[in-house]
Amino acid sequence: MTNSTTLKYVSLSILLVQTTSVVLTMRYSRTVQETGPRYLSSTAVVISELMKISACLCVIFYQHGYSIPGMLSELRAEIVMRPRETIKLLVPSGLYTIQNNLLFIALSHLDAATYQVTYQLKILTTAMFSVLMLNKRLTPIKWIALVILVGGIALVEWPSDTQNTSKEDKAAKDSTFSSQIIGLTSVVCACFSSGFAGVYFEKLLKGSDQTLWVRNVQLALFSVALGFIPVVFYDHKAVLQDGFLQGYNTITWIVVTLQAFGGLVVASVIKYADNILKGFATSLSIILSTFISFYFLGDFTPSSPFFLGALLVIVATFLYGSERKRPGPDGLIPVYRKV
Description:
Elements: H1 3-31, H2 41-63, H3 68-80, H4 83-87, H5 90-109, H6 112-118, H7 122-134, H8 140-156, H9 167-206, H10 212-233, H11 236-242, H12 250-269, H13 275-297, H14 304-320
Helix pairs in contact: 1-12, 1-13, 2-10, 2-12, 5-9, 5-10, 6-13, 7-9, 8-14, 13-14
């Protein structure tokens, strides 16, 4: 087996593990029975961003030969002395912060399998914003893939039959339906936020001479500041009563760590994975999430429309990535790549 083939299989494994584990652990952490207060998703977002800053600073520190003065000099020159470039990151930082909070809400109301399939709507939103903001042109094959994608997601969200049920069962189903609406709305909003922020970030990277790691330090700094807004205005009573780290346990720290470093790891290996491999990883992740949700988490019962919809989404993912992309500058891959 050649080194190139080995790297591809390693990349596939990392993409599969990261994509699947962060969704499943987050879903489990939001639904498992707790004896005390559950952790606050707003604080988890803040801690995740602080971890990202630490990771990016470590990389910059390494790039300067483990020289603290060298690292501080670059940060001062690129962040403090270039305020106009720095302030441009306020928009994607705010959108990524909103997106991260929405994903916690979504996985509090949707099972991992439904979430995984529905979140592929980000392919559509990213394509839409690429056309509007970057003047990209989509081929007919890509447009067909997007139509299939929307049809597949519509089937996944197709309501189940509620006839011939008791009042108690109907009330329970109405409650479940309301919860699903909240989860679905959160995912759709997160997809639009992800699509716009990703394209906006790509546009900034193409027009900037700053390194990717400096850009991500800028992103994370704004994200930490903006992440405290829901903590202060929405969760302040809970924080004052039970503390900032209330409800944190091993699973919570795993979720936060995966959120913080998962994107960094994916960005490091994504250059070794072509579009087909990425589509294969997405497909395997959907299948694996469905299997675990049904057999282990017990919060999902697949239906015929779901299976058909999931199959269409997988086909659309492969079809959309089947054509080779034009080569671009190395390293222009957003680190803030979400689940």
